[in-house]
């Protein structure tokens, strides 16, 4: 029966539609129902026909979704998802045993906006749909394309040959947007076959998941029919209507095409080559063929994220697919990884899909991790596993510091919750956990288990237990693993990782008297959580870091004391032990001081004996212990740092840079700071020269590019004169000659580092020169912003005072920045530039009568009050009192109160530093006095007259000519928070 809803204009929102319906009918009273589809009915197949005049720029489209529905259990309703679809007309026919169809009378439909449910039900409430029966549900509707990439959306571009605007329509269905395109069972568990038919302008072409089956031309229109898909989830349904062109290549029976706007066609060559190699490599690695005949990759102006893995039709944002002309190695490698991530999804997600979004990590974790593994196999020279450490693992190790933490497997239900599950945990933490077991279960065995799991669940859906059982089955077939006590407990092992929120720390305590080692675990968080943790060992006697399978699992909630003999380890008292080779395990390791000292001796003697990833891991593991002042023996960290002058690998440098920065900030204002800087200069000079002076341009690897910025910051913030010359030259080139280091806007942030470091020690003449340039500049230009933003980094007190006056002074305030922004700069400057702190107090003391007229003064004053060191609290109290009295007398800022002097907030942000200084400063000072060789020459250099550009200094002649190249290569991502 038909319930025509004609009369609704195309744009009427479904909310209105639903209200109208429930008001008129009332047969289905409003009730709170689950947002999940009921299980009584399921789709056997879809025939979807979409007609669009997008070639004319028309955003209206009409659809016919005909769904064959089977009834599992007798029910009074067929429930589908639909959202923002209008003019809905529904006809339901029962398919009889003879195959004929009979229209089912007396059906109506209701809309539930909260669940986005289109509910087909009889007018009277009875079980109209009987178990075992089949129905054909035909739904006609119209809808409007969106401009945002959700559902069916549109974009345009100007065809340069004709100078006309061309329109493109494309889809984004994941995770819950297929319902915006057509009514459907929009949950990944309801897989079905889709026959898609598209009617479009004759000069446009259509592509979809499957190859074209036939095309019919009628007048100005063409109807393209595609082959029927294998069973697949709705979130993978995709099509694009465009006038794009393509290049293609066929290998092993799979045709791959790169689609782009006609003028960009040739830019797809490297993406095509990569795609062909990667699909073949995935087939070989997992032993499962790519199941479709073709795979398209299309470059779109607008895409949801960088790319979307639709089966057989991957959509990309243009810049992530087409070869860029920047010659930027790093970006090219990143784009390759993005493409390979989407290709990996063709198996992980498309062939086998998650039963429900709670297992989104089974898509994203596998695609993320294996994109790196496959890329590494194909292009070992790119060293992408190092990139995995810096781009994925680093974030996963620190995610808990800035994200809401949840387990990898978490139940979600609303659309919003489903969207939110695509986060750092689903991608990066899951990738790290998968990597851990890829290694712990030996790579070959893990991959074989995965292959069998893919074979078993292909064209179907799976949950995590299905996956774990296949891994266990594979382990049981292996001679070695079969004998392990844990081998029957793979579910428990894996669940301890997918259902925990935080991360374990493994405590390794050696007893040197009786040759035993005690292993225990605790969470990085106070929450009580326990894991099954795979361990393996490298020792001074057996420094083999290559074999990464698990030697031992430590069980939840237990302490294991094992003798060296039981562990099969050769170790003497002075030898070192390292746990978690190549840091394939996703956890921190804490050692006792004696073991750390043994490691420090090895690092100084011959650091290359320890794998570079483990050298980095040592510092990654120490960092939180230093930051939380947990270590009793801070000297051992310095013993370990000492070898860094010999460290040529950037992975350890990246970790060490953070710790150095932390220590430097905490030592600010103490007698140890200059000694510490001298120590750091000593460590960083060789690396700085290698990257920025000798410029190992050709052989700077990918990871080098990531860490180059850290080296620059470490060197310049420790006042290394060469670094100061280098950045000052670049800064002056930019400021006075407006020589851009690069034109790419994405590197805008990089200016910030260079400019900030470059203006730290300007002479008066230079400083006022910069001010002059700034005042002459166009105030709406980026150049102007750059200058005003970089000057915050100056270390000169008189320049800082001048700068403050410029921002906040009587005559300048509103000329420079709008008021709240100026005041924000005050607290920003305070936090970012340690040298500015005393100057700011001085400035406030001098100018509070003016400052407190600003409505945002109190807020910013209260913020910086949190950074008052305890010894300055009395002065702070007096100043605060004077300001409060003045404000009261002047009746200013009645709404907001100055921070209370007894408030726990005053000085709160300094507490950690104070604990650090109390506990460590004396020890660090003594260590530095004993260990740091005097470097008197450098001190002179710091205060020498700054070198001007090209004045015959001893820098290589080519430095400035090639600066842009070096900087582009070396400085990638900026983290403004470094100046926090
Ligand atoms: Zn993905």
TrEMBL record:
Keyword field contains tRNA processing: no
Cofactor: Zn(2+)
InterPro entries: Aminopeptidase_N-like_N, Aminopeptidase_N-like_N_sf, ERAP1-like_C_dom, M1_APN-typ, Peptidase_M1, Peptidase_M1_aminopeptidases, Peptidase_M1_dom, Peptidase_M4/M1_CTD_sf
EC number(s) recorded for this UniProt protein: 3.4.11.-
Residue positions of the active site: 342 (proton acceptor)
Enzyme superclass (EC): hydrolase
Signal peptide positions on this chain: 1-26
GO CC annotations on file: cytoplasm; extracellular space; plasma membrane; side of membrane
Site (described: Transition state stabilizer): 427
Main location group: membrane
GO annotation, biological process: proteolysis
Molecular functions per Gene Ontology: aminopeptidase activity; metallopeptidase activity; zinc ion binding
Sorted UniProt keywords: Aminopeptidase, Glycoprotein, GPI-anchor, Hydrolase, Lipoprotein, Membrane, Metal-binding, Metalloprotease, Protease, Signal, Zinc
Note accompanying the cofactor annotation: Binds 1 zinc ion per subunit.
Peptidase M1 membrane alanine aminopeptidase domain mapped to chain residues: 271-497
Keyword Transcription regulation set for record: no
Protein name, UniProt field: Aminopeptidase
Native source species: Drosophila persimilis (Fruit fly)
Name of the gene: Dper\GL23787
